[in-house]
Amino acid sequence: MNDRISSFTHQQIWQILSAYTFSAGNSDGTQRWYPNISFCIDGTLKNTEKSVGLHSWKFARDRINFYDKKGKLTQFSLFDSKKIRQDGFEMRLNFPNQPLTNYNLLFSDGTNKAPDFLPNEFVYDENHILSYGSLNPINFPYFYKAGKLKVDIGQKYLLSIHVKVEDVFTFGRDDDFFILSESASDIELLTGEQRYFSMNFENLTSNKWKHIEKELVFTSEYVTYGPYITGKGQVAFKNIDLRLL
């Protein structure tokens, strides 16, 4: 997803980062210091002056640059991971040029937003239809884990989905609707190997059900998959299935 990050604006990155507070910590996450660090829309930071020494920030394509009080670039971080879990979200920012004896990661340690800021936008009804509907203008992904499967490496599998989009044009460029990740646990949004399915590539038509089938071969033992949608609009799913051929 790093190529996707490069198309984001500073405000879009802030909208993601501002959902969290962060702690500085070591590379494996076993130690954390300086909690409640937060990113502000004007490029400043809170709770960093007496700790990690970072004064302000600016998004720069694939990284976040950090500056001191005089405006000098002193540090930068890369998106180490952005994981979607069934019980919430995790963000990590990696500082590649920090010595390992010092902090070299910012871990998300909480949220700045109300609990309903990242709601579960999916509803599963009695007709076994999974529906997504959101008026949320924030470019932030929502994920529903439809399943996790242990697979035989090198064997062929069939992914089958029925999907209907009320109006494909409401999603614009953010037209991905399904994700499949060769992962045993979490879906990593900003790093890792995933396969995305887009409304444009699959030639979806507004307000019509379409049956999509894909033959797939995997290189890892586990696959996690499900609807993955960014932005506002309405989408419905049914008969999501992944099985060995």
Features:
mainly beta; 5-stranded antiparallel sheet; 19 strands
What can you tell me about this protein's structure?
The protein has 245 residues and is mainly beta. 5% of the residues lie in helices and 49% in strands. The protein has 2 helices and 19 strands. The strands form 3 sheets. Strands 1, 2, 3, 4, 5, 6, 7, 8 and 15 form a 9-stranded antiparallel beta sheet that branches. Strands 9-10-19-13-17 form a 5-stranded antiparallel beta sheet, with no helix packed on it. Strands 11, 12, 14, 16 and 18 form a 5-stranded antiparallel beta sheet that branches. A hairpin with a 6-residue loop joins strand 1 (20-25) and strand 2. It is elongated and about 60 Å long. Residues 114-119 have low confidence and may be disordered.
Task: Furnish the topology, listing elements before pairings.
Layout: H1 2-5, H2 10-17, E1 20-25, E2 32-39, E3 45-46, E4 56-60, E5 63-67, E6 73-85, E7 88-94, E8 105-111, E9 122-124, E10 130-134, E11 141-143, E12 147-150, E13 156-165, E14 176-181, E15 187-188, E16 194-198, E17 210-217, E18 222-230, E19 233-244
Task: Describe the structure concisely for a colleague.
With 245 residues, this protein is mainly beta. It is built from 2 helices and 19 strands.
H-E string: HHEEEEEEEEEEEEEEEEEEE
Question: What structural class results from the helix and strand content?
Answer: mainly beta
Uncertain segments are 114-119
Strand content: over 45%
Helix coverage percent: under 10%
